[in-house]
Design brief:
By secondary structure, the protein is of the alpha+beta class. It has one domain. Helix content is 35%, strand content 18%. The protein is built from 11 helices and 10 strands. It has a 7-stranded antiparallel β-sheet. A 3-stranded antiparallel β-sheet has the order 3-4-5, with helices on one face. β6 and β7 form a beta hairpin. α3 (105-122) packs parallel to α4 (156-163) and α8 (302-313) packs across α10 (325-340). The longest helix is centred in the N-terminal third of the chain and has 23 residues, at 3-25. The protein is globular, with a radius of gyration of 23 Å.
Length: 357
């Protein structure tokens, strides 16, 4: 080999190393806003949140059903706009959206492994494995992001929450008390609570503001988690009303508005959560995921608006206070009357619903 060919080879190597270094320093992308909802044509059927329904029972219950395993994690046309919000929160306010305590380390890595395996199998058009100088990676073709797989990943729970659209929470049983403690959470879209006030605490503390939790559900939920297995994973839905359209909503008293007069009809938003519960087979921790769906009240169809009115009519006074009904209730009722017509209050209360928790 001549000196010229040697120098040429060296130049190529130096250029390659320079390119790799730039890729390593490059920050996560903020994705374009144009045509955000048109980028995922999809070759598999996406999960569809069930429509709102009027219920007939006033009994407080978890409302569980068997998890649709094929749609454990979801990818749909809202991925890009929500992903942009997640990137912004992690860059500007990470301590309030992600926390992993030492006892959760094994479970966090297990969650990432399960998420990667699921996404590669369920959405092969959007995710693939690749090898780089860093090792084995998963590549997201929607965002052009690449994340390490396995022990080389230093933020496994955060990565799992960036790959999918769900928030991730890890509950680990305290053998001395029998309580399940929130030991790790990647909650980018909290519903009226603050992560740093809840991390490391028990289910009882997590649900302390919920009327009737301790007396009606607390012991039942602990027993349910004791019997939960990877084969008996479950899901449920939950509902809140907000006076703002924000996915990140951690107001300590349920909302940031102080007076109903400050709320406009266009600001009232129906926030629904799809929650799943599964036992992690290796660490034995419980994984609790939350996918959030936001719909402006004025965009609800007549059937769902009628069902929503029926559900709210079934809330007891304590639940109405917890849900900040005093801020939005009157305007919601006025909208229902305008869209659906007035109904006899007695007919409304015949459609009382179970209290969501």
């Amino acid at each position: 080999m001549t000196i010229f060919s040697t120098l040429s080879l060296l130049a190529v190597i130096l250029a390659l190393l320079s390119w790799i270094a730039k890729q390593h320093r490059r920050p996560p992308p903020i994705l374009p806003a144009d045509n955000e909802k048109a980028i995922i044509p999809g070759t598999t059927r996406s999960y569809v949140l069930p429509p709102l329904k009027e219920r007939t029972s006033t009994k407080m219950a978890m409302g569980l059903k068997r998890l649709d395993q094929s749609n454990w994690l979801t990818i749909d046309p809202e991925f890009v706009p929500e992903h942009n919000i997640r990137l912004h929160l992690l860059a500007k306010d990470r301590s309030n959206v992600v926390e992993c305590l030492p006892p959760s380390e094994e479970a966090c890595h297990e969650v990432l492994d399960l998420a990667v395996s699921f996404l590669l199998s369920r959405y092969p058009q959007h995710f693939s494995k690749c090898y780089t100088w860093k090792g084995l990676m998963i590549h997201n073709h929607i965002t052009s992001e690449t994340f390490p797989i396995g022990r080389q990943n230093q933020r496994p729970l955060e990565t799992a929450a960036l790959l999918a659209m769900e928030d991730m929470n890890i509950l680990i049983k305290d053998p001395s008390t029998g309580d399940y403690l929130l030991q790790a959470s990647a909650t980018l879209f909290p519903a009226g609570w603050k992560l740093q006030e809840r991390i490391g605490t028990s289910l009882a503390n997590l649900h302390a503001p919920v009327p009737g939790w301790s007396s009606k559900l607390g012991a039942h939920v602990n027993r349910y988690f004791d019997h939960l297995s990877p084969r008996t994973a479950m899901e449920r839905t939950n509902l809140f009303i907000q006076t703002n359209p924000n996915l990140f909503w951690n107001a300590p008293e349920g909302d940031t508005c102080e007076r109903a007069a400050d709320v406009t009809l266009g600001e009232i938003t129906v926030r629904r959560e799809r929650q799943t519960f599964t036992r992690l087979p290796k660490s034995n921790a419980v994984l609790f995921t939350v996918r959030t769906y936001m719909t402006p009240l004025v965009e609800l169809g007549d059937d769902e608006l009628s069902a929503l009115r029926g559900q709210i009519a079934g809330w007891e006074d304590e639940m109405k206070v917890y849900k900040a009904h005093h801020l939005w209730g009157e305007k919601l009722q006025q909208w229902c009357e305008e869209k659906l017509g007035a109904r006899d209050p007695a007919d409304v209360f015949k459609s009382q619903s179970g209290c969501p928790v």
